[in-house]
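Hey everyone, long-time lurker, first post.

I ran two proteins through the pipeline my lab uses and got sequence/structure pairs for each. Pasting them in order. The first:
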Amino acid sequence: MIKELNEYDDSCKLVIFAENFFILMPIDQLTEVDRYIAHINNDNIYESLYQIQPDLVWKLRNLPFYKFIAMKHGYIKAAANGLNNIRSGQQLTDPYLGYTPRNLTWQADMDSLNRIGKPIDVSVDSCIFKTYKEMVQELQMKGRRVLIMIPPVYKEGLRLLHNLEAERAAFRSLEGNGVYFIDYSNCALSQDKRFFYNNSHVNSIGADLFTQLLMHDIERILSVSPQKNEAEIN
């Protein structure tokens, strides 16, 4: 999708990557495939997904009606509602511009998970990181700035992520010439579960507060030349 953006959009000046702990780790199975079904004929999307699970992705693109097997009930329901709105002449609007507020409180079972859960060893796959670095460089060549960030993580969940510093170091190595890295994983929000509904997702209250923090940092990034020393940002 980033390749698609970089090829066809000339107006975007800042690209933000909100990364999780497993983004640079190898995976061999897709999740939530229905997110991509409508765009499976897009070569950029198809080729990226094909590298992860080639058999499934090939079937989605080439076997008639196979998409219906992969679709979840929620996808079909949303598609049907959209079709009904079009037929009835209703104007389709999205007041949140893609954002879905999570008006949820902390899930109690997360406390048990944090107490007895097994630690997760975070690693950086060299091949995946090479591809990631090339993608960032392609954005730079188009004159775009890139902000790589790790969003807030609740402090007890953060303790279960062993060797997260390896990922942080990989992202820091990309800094310079309009590329910035900000680590929010242990920010002030991370200290209070009231702002989360699980370890790695903020609720609507946390999202409002984090948006203010992020916007402040974005304004600082856009206020200086990409050639300025990164210390002026961090």
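...and the second, right after it:
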Amino acid sequence: MIGYFTIAALVFSFVSHDFIKDKDARKDDLGAWFFITFAALIWPLTLPNMVRTVVATGLNSHRSQEKQSLPEASRA
């Protein structure tokens, strides 16, 4: 049980950090904070999707950097 809530706290901190960084999000919206808390509590469902999104974003960024660094002759 302690492990479950430890991971839930980590997920909450990860999601709330991204929420706070979002300049367009209203920080005083109570519904948004309830949703973040709910998403953290059901972390066995939400965490795999978050990890997949972060990995996919990292791979796409890596691939675009790779394409930019290739010389023109090797792109064809």
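Reply from user beta_strand_b:
Welcome! Quick read of the second one: The two ends are 55 Å apart (CA to CA). The helical segments are 2-21, 30-41, 43-69, 72-75.
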